[in-house]
């Protein structure tokens, strides 16, 4: 036989169809997030028509099976659909609905037409169009301004942003950071532009180019110019007291929204106030109280306005020196109460001042009374008057509600205030002037006198250039409203019985009678039994109350479950309530790092995650897996590979629970190396689940250990394919025996070992042994052992030859040993028989036998005049 004919037959052999079914796909496919997409897949068979009894169809996305069809029926994932009627025409295309970023990847279409099969893959690319929005605000003409453009909800990450002015690109560099990932997998980014506008009718555009759209997306706005505020800070001291009132005045700004913050020595001391009355001036007040010791401070007013690149800060330095001859001092709590109500005062002040219809009218506000007494048993009442062309005179009158003759009248001048400090009533008055008009804020500070049970009429009289107006309220000195700690209104503690003890403390109220009730539920509340309630008289001759109830901790496992406490007192117009849910509990679960043991191929590994400090043992713990190189997470369920033992729960001395969740994995170097496991813990008390990650797993040991055989003319070839990770020395030994007890080791000289680095940090060793053929029907055992540096003991496989057939012995018994690939030839030295040559001295290949040892390798050969060998190409 000629060499040319041999090669022709070989090529013909390779070109012959390997399957009776041929699958065709169209890849890649592209779609937008939220849409539906068709993944085309068709097939044809050699001998139509299609018989559905021999047909099976599978669609898979990674390890997720989306569709399965065979002669028993069809099952599909909820996200996909197919037209089953098209199967008989060879159309098995898959429709994917409501596409998300996590759906991006490779889909496999597998068609089996028994006994043949073929699969093809379709790559799906998902895109999301960006949402572009410029923050529209007023700019300062001829000054530097910052404009921001937010680009959100786009995918993939690459994006180009261009700023335009009246249609022309701006060469000015922009500030844009790296895009940030959203929870749904899309991206967001902000681009900022610094610009100095000079012209009118200026159009600014933010243009975004993204592969999801064929044309750029723009947002634009026509610039409007604003005016920044003029800021002035001034203060006045309240005589005879360690108090000072600071006023931050803002004038002439446009547009209207503005924010004012106060700082003392650089530290924030009051939440921001915002004017919402449509006017263009604003004042913000702040009161400060000094201790008895000498004290100094820097008081700053910080103003934010949309025309400003950075806030305007005005600071005033003040010093206070104590005066031991002062007869009395205003308590700190009163000052704090005043501070807490200043926002309301300012809102009322500017509502009346700047409304045009009030500009020419003298206006008096109602008397404002805080709802809470201070710890020093003092309360402050406020009244304000506005738009007087001259300085306003103030008079306070306090009289018994039932007796008109017993009157007390106090003027609002500084001289009169000095004589009031030793009495039950203290008057403070602050004057201001805006746009030529006089304003006044006046306060009467009242000390609770529980020995005087009579109600009082309190009158505030204002005199403006001969015009008099007044406001009146009735005050009951014995009627003191209950106070509550606002930071922790309901205290919680755990009981030995497993209940939660809820308690509330109400303080400084009068008279004694008070009603406190407890209830619980989800939406609809049911009354609870009060466990304990105590009302006591405190040293200030006021009353305190403590109420408790107990409730099972298990009820808090229900989402939305709340406990409510309600109280009603004579001093209150309406009852008040406070609620607590699991989200308010002081016990917060803490999740520790996942304990990862050594990960050895084919061995079990136990991952452990400990959650401590929880008030209940009813936690929702789930394990997820992330495949190497992917972002999607897959829920781990019990299977042959995974075991999920029951959580180990222990109760600690502080009555909280510690739970240990475990995941037992049968490790595979092929699939687990580079993968990641996530332990996620949820409970109604958490705003969002807690989680810990293992990071990418590092599996070591033997990834592949396969044994094959091949019949040859003079011998049988046994082959061991060993692949290990990480790269390390591989030691393989072969031995034989006529029984399973005593083995004789083959010398290395009789073995053929070939090492290779096949990438990914994996070493491969192909070890071959030529077993002599036996004429007699003797049973013979062969053992191949693999020893690694990272392994304490070797891994072994036992092969038995019976009647010329080879089998492998494992736990399941004996199974036929698969054949490996080998090529034999009559050829040059090294071949067993003398070669046949042509007239040109070429060797003749008399026999070719090919089979597959590994689907990743295609075996070919090379034959030359001086050699005959096998080579493997990937």
TrEMBL record:
Residues 1-20 form the signal peptide. It comes from the Eukaryota. Coiled coil: none annotated. Keywords: Immunoglobulin domain, Membrane, Signal, Transmembrane, Transmembrane helix. The chain crosses the membrane at residues 330-353. InterPro entries: Ig-like_dom, Ig-like_dom_sf, Ig-like_fold, Ig/MHC_CS, Ig_C1-set, Ig_sub, Ig_V-set, Immune_Resp_Modulators. Residues 17-123, 130-222, 229-319, 589-662 form the Ig-like domain. This is Signal-regulatory beta-1-like isoform X3.
């Amino acid at each position: 036989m000629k060499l040319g004919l041999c090669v022709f037959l070989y090529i013909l052999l390779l070109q012959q169809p390997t399957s009776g079914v041929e699958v065709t796909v169209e890849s890649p496919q592209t779609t937008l997030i939220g849409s539906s997409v068709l993944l085309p897949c068709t097939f044809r068979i050699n001998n139509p028509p299609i018989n559905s009894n021999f047909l099976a169809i599978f669609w898979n996305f990674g390890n997720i099976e989306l569709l399965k069809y065979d002669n028993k029926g069809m099952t599909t994932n909820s996200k996909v659909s197919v037209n089953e009627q098209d199967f008989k025409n060879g159309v098995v295309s898959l429709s994917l609905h409501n596409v998300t970023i996590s759906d991006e990847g490779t889909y496999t279409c597998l068609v089996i037409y028994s006994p043949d099969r073929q699969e093809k893959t379709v790559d799906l690319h998902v895109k999301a169009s960006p949402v572009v929005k410029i923050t529209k605000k007023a700019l300062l003409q001829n000054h530097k301004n910052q404009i921001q453009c937010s680009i959100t909800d786009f995918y993939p990450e690459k994006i180009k942003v261009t700023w335009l002015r009246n249609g022309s690109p701006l060469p000015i560099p922009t500030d844009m950071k790296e895009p940030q990932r959203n929870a749904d997998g899309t991206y967001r980014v902000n681009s900022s532009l610094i610009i100095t506008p000079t012209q009118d009718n200026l159009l600014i555009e933010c243009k975004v180019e993204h592969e999801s759209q064929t044309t750029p997306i723009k947002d634009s706005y026509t610039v409007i110019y604003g005016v920044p505020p003029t800021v002035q800070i001034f203060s006045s001291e309240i005589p005879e007291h360690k108090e000072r009132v600071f006023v931050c005045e803002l004038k002439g700004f446009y547009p209207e929204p503005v924010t004012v913050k106060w700082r003392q020595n650089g530290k924030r001391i009051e939440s921001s106030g915002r004017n919402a009355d449509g006017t263009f001036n604003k004042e913000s007040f702040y009161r400060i109280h000094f201790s008895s010791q000498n004290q100094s401070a820097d008081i700053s007013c910080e103003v934010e306005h949309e025309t400003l690149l950075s806030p305007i800060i005005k600071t005033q330095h003040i010093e206070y020196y104590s005066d031991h001859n002062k007869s009395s001092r205003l308590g700190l709590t009163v000052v704090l109460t005043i501070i807490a109500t200043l926002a309301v005062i300012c809102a009322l002040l500017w509502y009346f001042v700047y409304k045009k219809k009030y500009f020419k009218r003298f206006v008096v506000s109602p008397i404002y009374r805080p709802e809470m007494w201070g710890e020093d048993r003092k309360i402050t009442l406020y009244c304000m008057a506005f738009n007087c062309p001259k300085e306003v005179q103030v008079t306070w009158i306090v009289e018994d509600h039932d007796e008109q003759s017993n009157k007390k009248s106090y003027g609002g001048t500084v001289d009169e205030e000095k004589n009031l400090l030793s009495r039950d009533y203290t008057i403070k008055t602050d004057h201001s002037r805006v746009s030529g008009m006089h304003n006044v804020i006046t306060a009467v500070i009242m000390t609770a006198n529980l020995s005087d049970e009579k109600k009082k009429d309190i009158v505030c009289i204002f005199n403006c250039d001969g015009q008099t107006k007044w406001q009146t309220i009735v005050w009951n000195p014995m009627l003191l409203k209950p106070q509550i700690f606002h930071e922790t209104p309901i205290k919680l503690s755990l009981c030995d019985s497993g209940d939660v003890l809820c308690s509330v403390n109400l303080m400084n109220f009068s008279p004694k009678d008070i009603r406190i009730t407890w209830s619980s539920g989800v939406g609809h509340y049911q009354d609870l039994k009060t466990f304990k309630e105590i009302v006591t008289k405190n040293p200030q001759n006021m009353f305190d109350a403590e109420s408790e109830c107990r409730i099972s901790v298990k009820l808090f496992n229900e989402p939305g479950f709340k406990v409510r406490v309600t109280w009603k007192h004579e001093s209150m117009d309406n009852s008040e309530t406070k609620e607590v849910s699991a989200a308010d509990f002081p016990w917060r679960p803490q999740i520790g790092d996942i304990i990862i043991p050594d990960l050895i191929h084919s061995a079990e590994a136990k991952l452990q995650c400990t959650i401590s400090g929880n008030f209940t043992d009813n936690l929702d713990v789930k394990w997820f897996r992330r495949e190497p190189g992917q972002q999607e997470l897959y829920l781990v369920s019990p299977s042959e590979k995974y075991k999920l033992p029951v959580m180990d729960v222990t109760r600690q001395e502080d009555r909280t629970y510690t739970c240990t969740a475990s995941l037992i994995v049968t490790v595979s170097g092929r699939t687990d190396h580079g993968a990641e496991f996530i332990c996620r813990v949820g409970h109604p008390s958490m705003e969002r689940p807690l989680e810990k990650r293992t990071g990418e797993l590092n599996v070591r040991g033997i990834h592949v250990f396969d044994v094959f055989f091949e019949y040859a003319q003079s011998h049988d070839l046994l082959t061991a394919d060993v692949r290990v990770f990480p790269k390390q020395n591989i030691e393989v030994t072969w031995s034989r025996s006529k029984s399973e007890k005593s083995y004789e080791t083959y010398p290395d000289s009789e073995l053929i070992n070939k090492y290779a680095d096949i990438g990914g940090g994996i070493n491969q060793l192909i070890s071959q042994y030529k077993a002599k053929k036996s004429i007699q029907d003797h049973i013979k055992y062969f053992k191949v052992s693999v020893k690694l540096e990272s392994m304490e003991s070797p891994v072994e496989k036992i092969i038995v030859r019976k009647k010329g057939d080879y089998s492998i012995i494992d736990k399941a018994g004996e199974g036929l040993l698969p054949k490996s690939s080998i090529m034999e030839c009559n050829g040059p030295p090294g071949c067993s028989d003398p070669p046949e040559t042509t007239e040109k001295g070429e060797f003749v290949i008399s026999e070719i036998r090919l089979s597959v040892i590994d689907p990743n390798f295609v075996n070919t050969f090379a034959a030359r005049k001086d050699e005959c060998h096998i080579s493997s190409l990937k």
